[in-house]
Amino acid sequence: MCLGIPGQISTITNAACYLAKVNIGGVLREVNITCIAEEGTELQDLVGAWVLVHVGFALSRIDEDEAQRTLQILAELGELQVELDAIQALGVSA
Amino acid sequence: MSKLAGKTITLAHGAGGKAMRELIDEVFVKGFANPELANLEDQARFDLTELIAQGNRLALTTDSYVVDPLFFPGGDIGKLAVTGTVNDLAMSGAVPLYLTCGMILEEGFAIDELIKIVASMKATADATGVKIVTGDTKVVHKGAVDKCFINTAGVGVIPAHIQIAATQAQVGDKIIINGFIGDHGAAIVDARGELALESSILSDCQPLHDLVQTMLKVCPQIHCLRDATRGGVATVLNEFAQSSQVGIKLQHSVIPVRDEVRGMCEILGLDPLYLANEGKLVAVVPPEYADLLLAAMRAHPAGLASAIIGEVQATPKARVLLNTGFGGERLLDMLVGEQLPRIC
Amino acid sequence: MKFVDEFRDSEKALILRQAIHHIAQILEPCLQRPWQIMEFCGGHTHTIFRYGIEQMLPDCIELVHGPGCPVCVLPMGRVDDCVAIAENPQVIFTTFGDAMRVPGSQKSLLQARAEGADIRMVYSPMDALALAKKHPEREVVFFALGFETTMPSTALTVLQAEREGIKNFSLFCNHITTAPTIKAVLDEPDLMLDGFLAPGHVAMVIGLEPFQFIVRDYHKPLTITGFEPLDILQALWMLLQQFAENRCGVENQYARVVQTQGNTTALKAIHQVFATRDFFELRGLGSIDQAGVGMRPEYAFFDAEQKFKVKNLTMTDPQDCQCGAVVKGLIKPWECQIFGKRCTPENPMGALMVSSEGACAAYYNHGYGRDAA
Fold first, then answer.
1. Does A79 share its domain with A51?
2. Taking a C-beta distance cutoff of 8 angstroms, is the pair B77, B147 a contact?
3. What's the whole-model pTM score?
């Protein structure tokens, strides 16, 4: 359940109602951004932000650093496996 | 400017009297502008010797068009009513020649819209080289149909050496598609506006007869050919697998899908393999011709993004499998009912 | 698509596959039986089948597909109530698409629509509110269902309706809560689960704390998991590391979306509009304490349950239906006596065959166990 999909805020369409156009793979949809608006910051500053959209509501700002970290772990894991395989191959041939 | 501009359809336009005659003359005879139609006989008549010169079998098909909305990005019900029936003929290898046009109109429908639809049918028919040679119009009470429904039947001639059938897929054959899938289905979701999505997706509504003739020149032995309309590519492939009692295996990663169509499918939880197309064909071809065909298709305007998307294997019989690209595969079944957005 | 394609990379998937097999190889000799890992959420089940993830796993990992599909666990009596509301000629009944096919004891919403009820599919509760504004002479009812992920959207829509003074909009509230549902699974005496892939989008709203009881009281480790195939594989790998190191904690694989505290604005809206019900019935699982929320008395005006005085009858599931045993991992879908015979996606008898995210429908649609059935 809970189909959620990343999109990027392209414009604020109605600041009073916390509405913004979000671009999801080239498709635009008006989305309610109440849940990701922080007190004391301008809504306009959210333009360009990546958010997770569920049934027309942005429920989380996607943390680009965390996304990179996850992918980095996998990249390192891959390198480790290559090294391990090399060591094992050496062991077999020796 | 038509005498009927700005007016609406009334029950009188279907009652057989002067109003109906005026509608036929002003809208259909003028719009379609064919000598065959202008005769106003109850039937079109053809010279058999001309037909026999082109092949040894007639292809005859009929289809009804009820698309909502009538005008959508990339097409309209008129264009669709010509290309849809032309494509049904073309998938047998036939050269499409003549179409009929039956219209059921709702009382209150704007005649200006009808004129636009007829103009679109005429333009598409001319571009396709088919003639609309006979027709019928009925008007029904408000609410009995939605604005305008069209039925077209079509006749074409199949050249003697062409033998295309859904039963002919053979182990080792390649599956080819002529471009991006799901455009029409996604464009219609968008055009209906119910889900308040905005995109620039255009329907792929286009005639395929010329592409088919190009393909047949390269490979007269095309085994199976069908246009992937309702139910999408997945449904056509299931039909081939069942009719030929073979297995079909697709490679998910090479199936052409536009980014925006993918985006819409991600938002709504839909699968583009089940979305409707109106200008896409799926061909099952002998493997030795696959690359030649692909090159010829990519050189044709209706096949620029053609791709080989899978192949025929012996097992599992009557099933379509999709290689997920993750080392796994899954069954691609027929849809149970209509594809509903999967949201929560 | 950014944040989607990177997490569907098949090469990285192979790296994770190898890492999972590596740990499994080391631990397998000590195992009495395969590990049973439950993915609670129907969205995870969907990804697992779509990418063929089960086929990538070693034999010592068994995935158990849990009850976290709100469409599946919707009891028949509630569908009957929906149909009754929708058949009121004054009403425009709005719903997410996937709820349309769920069978009630008499008919589904799709069938009710065919018979003339004004039932419309919407993408968002906001769209239902827009319909209410467009048709002030009609009563627009939104069928609110889903776990905590969906609650903020319906709560905020009600608050918006209140602010704008809209009088012809109401929710038919069928929201359910994750923790009590998981607890009901964990309290099953024959349970053999070893760990959980926990629902990432629920956690995005409620944070990590509500999942701690699984570790604290039931000693089952879990990973908060995203919805792309790499997310699921990485979460499984993380869980296996917990097994290997004899740890038992709540870990967050989906940190790009899920923050420890959840979304405080969303939680505030939920608590303002909804209150926990004493109990709520879930199809296949029966009545569970505190498993649902209803609308607070302050918002009774927007509560379709009160506006339309629904019957709220309990309809028992067909007797030979074994959905309960499947969602608890006690039997596999194809081991149910009616799977693929009297119960198919064309004619679903049990909850899990209803939605494409239900475990039985997923198995059936993807061809598993069908030849045996």
1. no
2. no
3. 0.93
